[in-house]
Design a protein that fits this description.
Alpha-Beta Plaits, 5-stranded mixed sheet, 37% helix
Length: 160
């Protein structure tokens, strides 16, 4: 008869597969075609970085709600020190640390992000992420850069 209380090793093994599953699901989502049913022609055109009018029409990428809340608080006068620790962090100048997720990280994309306000960038093309610091007022400009799929706070290591 099987043991109804699996050992700690078996429970840990089951949980170890979860990040792999999430990575696979994310990769499948990145393979979606831009002209999928339900997307308007203007939305598809806005994804084309070669189109000079695309930036004005482009639907902004998803910005994590916790980043939006922190940006609003900082713009409203909150002290950057309030965001020195936690899931959303700000430096002494009030800039937020962000991960900018993109379909393809290229030198042109990094240059466009820097022009939109991202500073102290560090790109990891294999993961489709550019890390950097952004002033709260520039968060929406980052979201409108062609090729950006999401903007999230970094996932910081936590000791137990």
């Amino acid at each position: 008869m099987p043991n109804p209380y699996p050992s700690r090793v078996h429970r840990m093994h089951a949980h170890a597969r979860l990040p792999l599953l999430l990575l696979l699901l994310g990769a499948l989502g990145a393979c979606a075609t831009p002209n999928a049913p339900g997307r308007s022609a203007s939305a598809v055109a806005a994804m084309n970085p070669a189109d000079p009018g695309a930036a004005a029409e482009r639907v902004p990428a998803a910005v994590a709600p916790e980043l939006r809340a922190a940006a609003a608080a900082l713009l409203g006068g909150a002290a950057p020190a309030a965001y020195a620790h936690g899931s959303v962090r700000a430096d002494a100048e009030g800039r937020l640390q962000v991960y900018v997720h993109a379909e393809a990280v290229t030198p042109a994309l990094v240059a466009a992000l820097e022009q939109a306000g991202l500073r102290q960038t560090s790109a990891v093309p294999q993961l489709g992420v550019v890390q950097g610091w952004v002033a709260p007022r520039d968060l929406d400009a980052l979201a409108r850069v062609a090729g950006v799929s999401a903007i999230t706070p970094p996932r910081y290591a936590v000791t137990r």
